[in-house]
Amino acid sequence: MKAPVLPATAQACSDKLVEDVSPTERRVWLWFPQLGGYGSKSAVSFTKQSSSGGDTPGCFDIELYHDGEFPQDEVCFRWHACNALQWARFGLDVYEKQLDYQTEHGPEDVAVSPDLADLLALRNRIDEIITQHMSAKAFAP
After folding, report:
1. Cα separation values, 98 from 34, 86, 94, 120, 128, Å
2. Is the dihedral of CA 34, 37, 41, 47 positive or negative?
3. Could you tell me the residue range of the domain that residue 56 belongs to?
C-alpha cells in the first residue's frame, strides 16, 4: 500500500527530504534547476527494481512544479528519465561549450572563477559517491 504523498514545500526540497512511498518505491524532494529564471520544487521517484543492469541505478520519474515560466503549487509536468549520469554529462557538455564559445568570442581567459567553487564541489562530490558506493573489486586491476 502506498503512503500518502507529502506536499511539495520549499523546506522539503532544501532538506532533500526522502519519502518511502512503499517498500519498493522512494520519492526524494529536490530543487530543479532554473526555468524562466525561477528554480522549482520537484519530486523524483524511483524503485529498487529500476535498474539498467546489475547494480547501477536506472530509470526515475520527475514531477515538476513549474510551468516553464513560473513556479506553481501543483505538478505541471511529469516525465520519465533513464539515467541521472546522462543528465550530469549533458550539463557538463553545455557548460564546456559555453566556455569554448566565450573564449572564441571574448577575452582569452574566460572568467570561470565564480563557478570554480561549484565545479570543485561537484568533483569532490563525485569522488565521495565513488568512494562510498563502489566496491573494492571495482578498483581491482
Report:
1. 17, 18, 6, 18, 27
2. negative
3. 1-82
The span from the first CA to the last CA of the chain, in angstroms, equals 45
pLDDT of residue 46: 92
Could you give the CA distance from residue 15 to residue 11 in angstroms, rounded to a whole number? 6
Cβ atoms of 120 and 128 within 8 Å: the answer is no
- CB neighbours (10 Å) of residue 11? 8
Mean predicted lDDT score pLDDT of the chain? 81
Ramachandran region, residue 17 (left: φ > 0; alpha: ψ -120 to 50; beta: rest): beta
Note the pLDDT of residue 99: 79
Over residues 46-95, the pLDDT tens digits come to 987 644 555 667 789 999 998 878 888 889 999 999 888 888 889 889 98
Residues 6+ apart with CB under 8 A from 20: 3, 26, 27
Do 23 and 66 fall within a single domain? yes
- Say yes or no: 27 and 9 in one domain: yes
Residue with cell 526524494: 28
